[in-house]
């Protein structure tokens, strides 16, 4: 029987961390206390999986993943919502309740807090419950370390310098100052390095780190939704690329690609990328790491997925989508008519507002006249993105032919003509950027690409002076500033 208790635990933990201190001080007559919680194998399972659930809750909260990674880049046009227009215009101090949510990092620190507790408590459990082996404990511990590292990496891209908290707290927010982002990223990189040693390539029972079925399920259940060596190396590559250490990024990517028979990672066709049973249904070979939202497990939501903003009638009972990509923009981004993505990423091209149709996990419940349920997975890392990152890093380190070959492989898979080897390095870099823009549209990458490719002033109303003064980051919320007197607001947003 499939289990659906993870979501309930996640909600319990998320609710606890959003409560005030007085609520935390009240001894519950129903909840298990922290001292008694970490004593059995089942406690270990619940406590470690809660880290995944809390991360998912933070990213899905008011569609934060797309507000942070997609909307600031200006690619989507807003129909009526003032909060989304403010994000698109980079007016990030605007007074909207949703923007208070997107400015607030506390749900991410709730994830960090759960990881810190799990890292401290998991090693104690094998001595208390003989059913929980040291090997299984080390595997769970490695996954928690991965989640903590990813969460810090994610937050650095949003807020820059951060309080680096690595020990369990007492319930209050730890009052420490912001740590330089490079120190935070180096911590995350080393954290992943520790995790990789105890993670399997796949959860298929054939690796010494994970023998037999994991928690009673085989690889088809776990593919892409748990931390693996490949996911760890991919995260390391992104950390190093964000730090402009492109050689370091390539080192990690080359290990991933050199172990293709172990990872099982593969490219995806446009049809499979966009189908109901495809990439955003998840648990497929193109997904290196995803955060699952599985309808089969009753994991559905009326918000938290991009479809809530992009779909409209006849797919859902909304006359108008909240956001869309204009026809002029579509033709500018996908400028070659042969590109197979145009007809699958968009529909109703003859309308004033074409519908973004790339991500659309639809089921009968969605078309209920009063309820709209969505359950697409967040594809955090997928294989095509990693290959395009490799092409970028190759070019930045002087491997022109390697970068060109990788880019043209990707273009061939999308029915595009090859880029000729007569282009300049700058022209090839532009082609790599534009291919990332086409392939990853709607997946929460474009804003970070504008930052790393140095294109924020070109695509937004921000100047290079604004960028230099910290405009690429979100302001820290007033709530977070109020909880921690040692915090200082980002210079641009003061």
Would you give an account of this structure?
This protein has 494 residues and is mainly alpha-helical. The protein contains 26 helices and 8 strands. Strands 1-5 form a two-stranded antiparallel ribbon. The longest helix is centred in the first third of the chain and has 26 residues, at 134-159.
Q: Uncertain spans, ≥5 residues at pLDDT below 50?
A: 1-32
The spatial strand order of the largest sheet comes to 1-5
Global Rg: 22 Å
How large is the count of helical segments? 26
- Main β sheet profile: 2 strands, antiparallel
Helical content, roughly? 40-55%
The pLDDT mean sits at: 90
Q: Alpha-carbon distance between the termini?
A: 53 Å
**Sheet/helix structural class:** mainly alpha
Number of strands: 8
Strand % is under 5%
Basic shape: globular
Brief account:
The chain is mostly helical. 49% of the residues lie in helices and 4% in strands.
Secondary structure layout plus pairing:
Elements lengths: L4 H13 L3 H5 L8 H4 L3 H20 L3 H6 L7 E2 L3 H7 L8 H7 L2 H16 L3 H4 L5 H26 L21 H16 L9 E2 L2 E2 L7 H4 L6 H14 L3 H13 L1 H4 L6 H5 L12 E5 L15 H4 L12 E2 L2 H7 L8 H4 E2 L7 E2 L21 E5 H14 L3 H14 L11 H15 L6 H7 L3 H4 L4 H5 L9 H6 L11
Antiparallel strand pairs: 1-5, 2-3, 4-8, 6-7
Helix pairs in contact: 1-4, 4-8, 4-10, 8-10, 10-11, 10-13, 11-13, 13-14, 14-20, 20-21, 20-22, 21-22
């Amino acid at each position: 029987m499939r289990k659906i208790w993870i979501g309930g635990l996640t909600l319990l933990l998320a609710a606890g961390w959003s409560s005030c201190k007085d609520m935390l001080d009240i001894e519950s007559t129903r909840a298990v206390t922290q001292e008694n919680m970490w004593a059995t194998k089942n406690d270990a399972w619940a406590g470690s999986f809660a880290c995944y659930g809390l991360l998912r809750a933070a990213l899905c909260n008011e569609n934060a993943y797309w507000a942070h990674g997609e909307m600031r880049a200006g690619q989507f046009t807003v129909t009526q919502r003032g909060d989304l227009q403010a994000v698109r215009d980079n007016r990030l101090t605007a007074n909207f309740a949703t923007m208070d949510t997107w400015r607030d990092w506390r749900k991410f620190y709730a994830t960090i807090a759960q990881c810190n507790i799990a890292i401290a408590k998991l090693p104690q459990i094998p001595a208390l419950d003989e059913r929980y082996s040291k090997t299984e404990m080390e595997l769970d511990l490695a996954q928690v370390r991965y989640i903590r590292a990813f969460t810090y990496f994610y937050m650095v891209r949003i807020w820059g310098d951060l309080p680096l908290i690595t020990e369990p707290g007492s319930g209050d927010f730890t009052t420490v100052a912001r740590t330089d982002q490079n120190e935070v990223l180096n911590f995350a990189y080393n954290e992943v390095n520790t995790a990789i040693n105890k993670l399997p390539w796949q959860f298929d029972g054939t690796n010494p780190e994970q023998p037999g079925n994991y928690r009673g399920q085989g690889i088809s259940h776990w593919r892409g939704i748990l931390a693996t060596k490949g996911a760890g190396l991919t995260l390391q590559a992104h950390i190093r690329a964000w730090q402009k250490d492109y050689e370091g990024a390539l080192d990690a990517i080359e290990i991933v690609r050199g172990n293709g028979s172990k990872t099982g990672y593969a490219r995806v066709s446009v049809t499979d990328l966009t189908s109901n049973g495809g990439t955003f249904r998840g648990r497929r070979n193109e997904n290196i790491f995803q955060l699952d939202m599985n309808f089969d497990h009753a994991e559905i939501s009326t918000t938290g997925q991009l479809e809530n903003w992009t779909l409209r009638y006849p797919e859902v009972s909304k006359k108008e989508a909240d956001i869309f990509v204009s026809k002029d923009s579509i033709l500018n981004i996908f400028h070659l008519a042969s590109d197979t993505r145009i007809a699958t990423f968009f529909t109703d091209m003859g309308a004033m507002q074409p519908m973004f149709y790339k991500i659309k996990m639809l089921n009968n419940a969605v078309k209920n006249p009063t309820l709209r349920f969505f359950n697409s997975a967040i594809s955090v890392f997928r294989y095509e993105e990693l290959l395009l990152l490799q092409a970028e890093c190759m070019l930045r380190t002087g491997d022109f032919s390697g970068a060109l070959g990788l880019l043209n492989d990707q273009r061939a898979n999308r029915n595009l003509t090859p880029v000729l080897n007569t282009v300049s390095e700058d022209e090839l870099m532009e082609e790599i950027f534009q291919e990332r823009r086409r392939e990853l549209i709607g997946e929460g990458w474009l804003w970070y690409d504008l930052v790393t490719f140095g294109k924020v002033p070109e695509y937004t109303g921000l100047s290079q002076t604004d960028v230099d003064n910290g405009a690429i980051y979100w302001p820290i919320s007033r709530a977070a500033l109020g909880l921690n007197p040692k915090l200082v607001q980002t210079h641009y947003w003061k």
